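Minimal example, chain plus adenosine-5'-diphosphate.
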Amino acid sequence: MLKLFRFLKPYRTPIFVIFVLVFFQSMSQLYLPTLMSDIVNKGIINGDVDYILRIGGLMLGTALFGSICAIFSSLISSQVSMGFGRIIRSRLFKHITNFSLHEFDIIGTPSLVTRTTNDITQVQNVSMMITRMMIIAPITCVGGIILAISKDRDLSWIIVVVIPLLLIFIAIVVSKVYPLFKAMQKKIDKINQILRESLIGIRVIRAFNRTEREETRFEEANEDLTDVSIRVNRIMAVMMPGIMLFMNLSSIAVIWFGALRIEHGATNIGDMMAFLQYMMQIMFAIIMASLMFIMLPRAQASAARINEALDMETDILDPAVEKPLGEGKTSISFEKVYFFYKGAEKPALKDISFSASAGEVTAIIGSTGSGKSTLVNLLSRFYDPDEGSIRLNGTDIRDIKQSTLRGRIGFVPQKAVLFDGSIEDNIRYGKPDASDEEILRAAETSQSMEFINSMEEGFSSPIAQGGTNVSGGQKQRLSIARALVGRPEVYIFDDSFSALDFKTDSRLRSALKKETSESTVLIVGQRVATIKDADRIIVLEEGLIAGMGTHQELLGSCPVYQEIVYSQLSAEEAE
Ligand code: ADP
Ligand code: MG
């Protein structure tokens, strides 16, 4: 929590103003009982109306001043805490956007979402309370005790007895509630997680008739949370009347012993009333401060989660000095590349070496899980290899800026992702300053025209969030168009034709061939038909290169490739 307060730096002046305002607010509150005792002692008892009116006016003025300070301090503190939240959110977001996929694997995307939203709100709310309580509580406690003693020194033994008792009572309650609040936070996380899974997987859940199972799972977590909440509330329900009882008993004690003293002429009514009010103020301050301690654990948990994300440094960094890229069209080479996913025992890629130059098509084929996507992700530097190097025109990609590297690559991911906006917006994503002709050409090459034309608004047709209103194949073609429009020197198609029918697939490939004839092309594919014309086919098996060569060469030499080809041929022939 404290660590996050560094983000309050730009608000030093407003926070100082809040402190000053809160200080005056507490001071005026402390002043009121003294004025009241003056009215009683000197005004009412002597029947001095003038005095009553004068001091009464002063009381009104003091109260008004205190209220104005309170209003402005809460106004400013809410602004500061909102700004505080905004700063952490944008910091965290910026930090996360620099994450490599490793960090996403570790924290998990949904958790990052909660951390950027819910957790920050939590911290933001508590920070507002803390800034105010930090000033109010000590001033009221210390000031109240001093003033109470000055009003009646002999009654102050009541404070000495009552305050420790109150502290013990609160300490007992807090020690019971504190762990429950912590548990509650965990249960809320659990519910969020189940909810997220159920909502994201709703199609699968319905299709497998598992709605009931999900409901039970949710029900259990829900009951768990209810249980804890009820236990917390039970304690709180005892705490509130307990505190009230405590305060009332203390009042009785003050009035009782005060009355005795008044009878003996040792004190007077005004001082006793002031004493009573000071004691109340002290107790309130203590209760408010302890409420803060109850709220703190939740914010603390949130702060820890935010810090965890903020402290996570990505190992994929731009070099301090960018090395120049070799001249000419971009060629790529892998040299003895090994790669492990974090926590995995076996390498996802082993001893991968090959090179590809401009004008060549390199295809990668292999069963699912053989490391095809991993290989192309390494080239985009979503991960860094553990051993070996990947070079662009002879320069290690770790020695050039990520923006330089990715600026040369047109990447079509395995899972096509579209953004909220029109079809045109989505294609333009690949090159923000693309002309209409360029967009049109990309759409034509990617075989998207036929379905774009059939849509009512053509290129301006809206794409829903996540692209749910277009089919899988349409999504793939649009994400191909997005890569094409930037006319990059390296193309990566990660299984990008899998959702296309054979006819569209072959038309798309022949159109692509013309468009990409000057570029280095990497095609990951499952279908032999998609890849068999490639200049070089890499057969991957369990992260190892099982064979490399042309279709004809591999047919003759590579058993893994033969197996893939024959399994597919028979399927096609059978159709
Ligand atoms: P392919 O694209 O050939 O189907 P991948 O490259 O996606 O295969 O995966 C290769 C292997 O790495 C698989 O065994 C998979 O389980 C593992 N893997 C893929 N992504 C991750 C990840 N983010 N974290 C850990 N392991 C992963
Ligand atoms: Mg894959």
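The chain has a mean pLDDT of 89. The two ends are 64 Å apart (CA to CA).
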